[in-house]
């Protein structure tokens, strides 16, 4: 029987590549998304992957959303916490709302989703949880005190959850992508991208979403059962954690 996987923020950017990679590997995939109905409809049309809309920053919405997914596809065995936003600003100019929005979508979401699938995984004795962190959670990034805090927090969460669940057949890992060619990175001012970021990537280019998706599909596989609590860094050599 095909395993069921859910990818938050799974209809665009890195998330879309992850959803497709898991589908190609034989999983039954659900892609959740928060707002962009048009992109989600186009993604569903092109990929044939089921899409579900809710706010991952809202615990009750995650609970009911997951119930809908499980009613349609079956019990979730692979959770990919990918949903993420940026609200970049120097901390001394950051609005409280920009802090709250990023912590809610990028970090609260990881608890909200995990809490609503972990008991089922423990009961069945199998689970894979992969959360998408960032190079900027490892090294910090000016203009991203909110995002760096959320992405670093997710790594601590991963290590604690891995310890709690290792003996239940559940692995919990994080991936820390560097700068990947998505809308999020393209939103960085061009001058900053050209002069401050690209020159620091030894591989000499941005990463591709599929390069992160392959990492997820590997960590989700049965064969990766001895890897837990780890952070897999994929950043073109920009930062060696
Ligand atoms: N690295 C190094 N220096 C940077 C920088 C960066 N990423 N971003 C900005 N700077 C520099 C600017 O070049 C500028 O320096 P100079 O005065 O020497 O030119 C200085 O910091 C101040 O920048 P601004 O004048 O632009 O100040 P601002 O207050 O208007 O905006 C900012 C500051 C919000 C940080 C804006 O520059 C910005 O958005 N920078 C990009 C931040 C960034 O890297 N975000 C990553 C998004 S991608 C992502 O998050 C995905 C992932 O996981 C990797």
Topology overview:
Elements: E1 4-8, H1 13-24, E2 28-33, H2 37-47, E3 50-53, H3 59-73, E4 76-81, H4 96-124, E5 127-132, H5 135-139, H6 145-165, E6 170-177, H7 183-186, H8 190-197, H9 209-220, E7 231-234
Parallel strand pairs: 1-2, 1-4, 2-3, 4-5, 5-6, 6-7
Helix pairs in contact: 1-9, 3-4, 4-6
Q: How would you describe the overall organization of this protein?
A:
Helices cover 49% and strands 16% of the residues. α1 packs across α9 and α4 runs parallel beside α6. It has 241 residues and is an alpha/beta fold. It has one domain: 3-Layer(aba) Sandwich (Rossmann fold), CATH 3.40.50.720. A seven-stranded parallel beta sheet has the order 3-2-1-4-5-6-7, sandwiched between helices. It binds acetoacetyl-coenzyme A (CAA). The site of acetoacetyl-coenzyme A has 21 residues, from α5, α7 and α8.
The CATH architecture category equals 3-Layer(aba) Sandwich
Quickly give the structural class: alpha/beta
Overall tally of domains: 1
Distance between the termini: 38 Å
Average pLDDT taken over every residue: 97
What profile does the largest beta sheet have? 7 strands, parallel
Q: What best-fitting shape do the alpha-carbon axes yield?
A: globular
């Amino acid at each position: 029987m095909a395993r069921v996987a859910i990818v938050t923020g799974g209809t665009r950017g890195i998330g879309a590549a992850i959803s497709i990679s898991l589908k190609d590997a034989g999983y039954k995939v659900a892609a959740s998304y928060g707002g962009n109905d048009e992109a989600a409809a186009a993604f569903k049309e092109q990929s044939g992957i089921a899409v579900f809309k809710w706010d991952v920053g809202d615990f009750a919405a995650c609970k009911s959303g997951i119930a809908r997914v499980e009613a349609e596809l079956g019990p979730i065995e692979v959770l990919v916490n990918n949903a993420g936003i940026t609200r970049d600003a120097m901390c001394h100019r950051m609005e409280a709302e920009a802090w709250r929005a990023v912590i809610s979508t990028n970090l609260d979401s990881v608890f909200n989703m995990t809490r609503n699938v972990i008991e089922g995984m423990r009961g069945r004795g199998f689970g894979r949880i992969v959360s998408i962190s960032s190079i900027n959670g490892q090294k910090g990034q000016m203009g991203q005190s909110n995002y760096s805090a959320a992405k670093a927090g997710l790594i601590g969460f991963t290590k604690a959850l891995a310890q709690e669940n290792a003996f239940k057949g559940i692995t919990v890992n994080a991936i820390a992508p560097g700068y990947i060619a998505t809308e999020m990175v393209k939103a960085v001012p061009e001058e900053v991208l050209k002069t401050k970021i690209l020159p620091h990537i030894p591989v000499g280019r941005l990463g591709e979403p599929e390069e992160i998706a392959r990492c997820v599909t590997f960590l989700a596989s049965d064969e990766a059962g001895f890897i837990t609590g780890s952070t897999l860094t994929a950043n073109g050599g920009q930062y060696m954690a």
